[in-house]
């Protein structure tokens, strides 16, 4: 699902920052 993928990417980016 696109929304789930989007949320997952945001979560990963927040971990990197």
Concise description?
It contains 1 helix and no strands. It is an all-alpha fold and about 15 residues long.
What does it look like?
The mean pLDDT is 95. This protein has 1 helix and no strands. The protein has one helix at residues 2-16. It is rod-shaped, with a radius of gyration of 8 Å. With 17 residues, the chain is an all-alpha fold.
Global morphology: rod-shaped
| Helix content bin | over 70%
Mean pLDDT: 95
Question: Multimeric state of these chains?
Answer: single chain
Order of helices and strands: H
Note the beta-strand portion: under 5%
Number of strands: 0
Cα radius of gyration in angstroms: 8 Å
- Structural class, from secondary structure content? mainly alpha
């Amino acid at each position: 699902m696109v929304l789930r993928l989007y949320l997952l990417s945001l979560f990963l980016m927040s971990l990197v920052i």
